[in-house]
Amino acid sequence: MRYFLIGLLALLSLEASSTNSVNPAHIRGVVKDFKGGDVIMMINRKKEVVQVDDNGVFDYTTTLKEPGKAILFFEKYEYILPLYIENGMEASLTFSFVEKKDKSSLLPYDLELEYSGDNGDCTEFMQKYEALSLYNVWPFSRIDTMSFAQYREKFLEDMDRVKSELKEVKSLAFRRMMMAEIDRSIPESLFRFAWSKLKNDADFEQFAESFDRNDPDNLGIAAKYLRHYLRHHPAPEREKDIHYLNSLKQVFSDQEVINAFADEYIQSYLKQAPDNMEEVYKLYSNISTNPEARALADDMYAHYVKLRKGAPAIDFEMTDAKGKKFRLSDFHGKAVYIDVWATWCGPCCAEIPHMEKLAAHYAKNKKIVLLSISLDKNKAKWEKKLAEDKPQWRQFICLDAFDSEVCKNYGINAIPRFLFFDKDGKVISLDAPRPSSAKITEYIDRHIR
To answer: Coiled coil located at which positions (predicted)?
Structure first.
């Protein structure tokens, strides 16, 4: 026993020594003409602010449990760079951001990157792979010209070329990681054939049925299959929520899979406070068997059932560009259409030109006021955007962002989001049509007569 304990202690000591001797990943960086703002490193969903000096120089080290992807985000430049990091690597990066001449671009800067040291070929491969957008190389207009057999053949040829390039990368750990990621992505990419057009193709149907959609570890494919099924088994618009929930038991037999889709759906659905909440929620209660999700949904139902159309709005505070505080209730007497957005949100910014047209259309209408509420935490960034765009409708900010009253009261956890209240401060919609909707003015006019 004595020798066993001595041996065990020696082994533990060796393991501890081995762990302590791991060399961390080390990245030195320089941002030329640095304009400030946070630089954030995200690894395995953990976010860390990188300390950058006034000259744009930083020195970052981290010890990883396993090699993996990282995201380097430059707040001031609204730029995201994918990186590959593993213990022991030494790399030096020089970043030169070039402002785009096209001011309408969602990404205001291009990046010129100089990379020296370990894993440069990994990062280069990741950049090319992410730039290989399916929607650019394989748009639906191209898929529409092919049978599924042709699409699969050509698409797999493209993936084989990508894999061939991957074999040239030096890091074995990176090659293994990316090969697994590429192989995982292929089936879901091929499933895009399902909604290029509503067409029957025996090869595709055989492909779709070849997956175990009742495997809880296969929810990505299961979601694609469900969407395929619903497109071929559509429901009238007013029955789509009932139809969705009923379809879960038609498509799946595994209760864990059914719960996953039902629970996610009801949480999104309830935040809209629709008219038929009782009927849909009762059906959900008979479908999901997940007690934790049911308890959360019960609380959500109790909150949002009080915010259906015609219910009194819950008041909240917002601040204008001059620092003056306002509340929703300050606008009683007029209908209020609200755009909840942020400068960092691409789809939000894409709605701005449509919001401008909407504001111009109702500029002389005394029955309605249009507001935009930013969820930016950086007030200076918001002010700069206002100075550039010069919007002609009321602008506000909630610096608490998703922790603000408006977000908590109305369940806003994704943007853009559009709220609509009548002149008496009662709810018209918690999920109103976007300004870009073809029938937006018709929708608004119908509610402000």
So the answer is: none
